[in-house]
Specification:
With about 350 residues, the protein is α+β, with helices and mostly antiparallel strands. Helices cover about 40% and strands about 10% of the residues. The strands form two sheets. The chain has a five-stranded antiparallel β-sheet. Strands 6-7 form a two-stranded antiparallel sheet. One of its GO terms (biological process) is DNA alkylation repair.
C-alpha cells in the first residue's frame, strides 16, 4: 500500500499548487456574523471505568490559549472539527454520571460514535510501569491521564507542520490567523464560544502567498502543508494503520519528518510509544528529570527512556507533567515574525 503511495508523493514536487499563485480565486467564506445553526444537539453519556481527567486527556488537541477550534469555559470543553461527514462541534462536560457529550453539525454522529476512542477508552494505562521515582510520583498524582485517539489526521498534521522550527507562540499565532480567516464558523447553539472549523483541503490550497506571509509562515512550511493537503485522503487512511506504518506514510510527503509524524500519530492513534525526536526542549527535559543531565540529545533521551519501551510517549507525558526542567543557560529561541519583514 505504501509502495503505491510513494511515487504519488514524490510527484508532488512537480505538481503542487504554488502558494501565492494569483490565478487561484480566494475561497468564499460565509459572513462572520452567520453561524451554521444545526439540528438540535445529539447527546451521549460516556462513563469512565477508572480515574479520568478530562483536561489531561483532551489537552493535547488545544493549540494555544486562543485556539479558534478549542475552548474551555467553566470546566466545559468545546471542540470544533472537520469530520469525514462534515463540520461538527463537540461539547464535553463532566457530571456525576460520567462525561456528558453533545454534538452539532453534519459530523455530530461521527464524533459521538467515536467518543470512547477520543476519550482514551481504548488506551491501556495499566501497561505502564514507572521505573523512576520522579515518574512514579507523577503517575500517582495524575491517575486520570489517558491517551486520546481522534482518528483525524489533517487536523493534527497541519498545526504540527506550523510548529516546525519556530516558537510555540509563533505557531499558535499562525494557526489562529489562518483558521479564523479561511475556516468556517462552527455549528452549534446560540451562546456557544466563537469557534471555527479548520479549512478543508481545497481551501488550504487556495491561500495566497501574502496571507501565509502575514501569518508568519515561511515558504517551506507552507509548501509542506500544500503537498499534504493534495494527498489528504491518502493521509487520512493512515488511521487504519499501526502507528509506525502511519508515520512512514506521512513521511512520504516531503517536509514531513520524524518530529511531525510523531506529534501527529500521538493524537490520531493514541500511540503510547511514539516519542517525539528532534524537539528543541524534550531531550533536555527528559535528561534532566531522569539523570540530572542538562545537555541530553535525542540519542541520550532514547537511551534513558529505553526501560519504558512500548510506553515511551506516555513516560514523556508524565515527565512533562512534573514541571521539572533544566535551568536555562541560553537565551530563549528568538521569534522571527516574517509577516513584518
Amino acid at each position: 500500500m505504501a509502495g503505491r503511495f510513494e511515487p504519488r508523493a514524490q510527484r508532488l514536487n512537480r505538481t503542487t499548487v504554488r502558494a501565492g499563485d494569483t490565478r487561484l480565486p480566494r475561497p468564499a467564506r460565509a459572513p462572520r456574523s452567520a453561524r451554521a445553526h444545526a439540528a438540535p444537539a445529539r447527546t451521549r453519556t460516556w462513563t469512565p471505568t477508572a480515574p479520568f481527567d478530562l483536561g489531561l486527556v483532551v489537552g493535547p488537541l488545544r493549540r494555544g490559549p486562543a485556539d479558534p477550534t478549542f475552548r474551555v469555559t467553566n470546566g466545559t470543553v468545546w471542540r470544533a472539527t472537520r469530520t469525514p461527514e462534515g463540520p461538527a462541534t463537540l461539547r464535553l462536560t463532566r457530571s456525576s454520571t460520567g462525561i456528558e457529550a453533545a454534538a452539532w453539525g453534519e459530523g455530530a454522529d461521527w464524533l459521538l460514535d467515536r467518543l470512547p476512542h477520543l476519550l482514551g477508552d481504548t488506551d491501556d494505562p495499566g501497561a505502564f510501569t514507572p521505573r523512576h521515582r520522579l515518574v512514579a510520583d507523577s503517575h500517582r498524582r495524575r491517575p486520570g491521564l489517558r491517551l486520546l485517539r481522534t482518528g483525524l489526521v489533517m487536523e493534527s498534521l497541519i498545526p504540527s507542520v506550523l510548529e516546525q522550527k519556530v516558537t510555540t507562540d509563533e505557531a499558535y499565532r499562525a494557526w489562529r490567523i489562518l483558521v479564523r480567516k479561511y475556516g468556517e464558523q462552527a455549528p452549534g447553539p446560540d451562546g456557544m464560544p466563537d469557534l471555527y472549523v479548520m479549512p478543508e483541503p481545497a481551501t488550504w490550497r487556495m491561500i495566497p502567498s501574502w496571507d501565509w506571509h502575514r501569518a508568519g509562515v515561511d515558504n517551506k512550511r507552507a509548501q509542506t502543508i500544500l503537498r499534504a493537503v493534495r494527498v489528504a485522503p491518502r493521509l487520512e487512511e493512515a488511521v487504519a494503520l499501526d502507528p509506525q506504518a502511519a508515520r512512514k506514510r506521512l513521511e512520504l510527503v516531503p517536509g514531513i519528518g520524524p518530529w511531525t509524524s510523531a506529534e501527529t500519530v500521538q493524537r490520531t492513534h493514541g500511540a503510547p510509544d511514539e516519542v517525539t525526536v528532534g524537539d528543541l526542549h524534550l531531550p533536555g527535559i527528559v535528561g534532566y528529570a531522569l539523570a540530572g543531565e542538562r545537555d541530553a540529545d535525542d540519542a541520550r533521551m532514547l537511551e534513558l527512556l529505553e526501560p519504558y519501551r512500548g510506553q515511551r510517549h506516555r513516560a514523556a507525558r508524565y515527565i512533562l507533567l512534573t514541571g521539572r526542567t533544566p535551568p536555562r543557560r541560553t537565551p530563549k529561541m528568538p521569534k522571527t515574525d516574517i509577516g513584518k519583514l
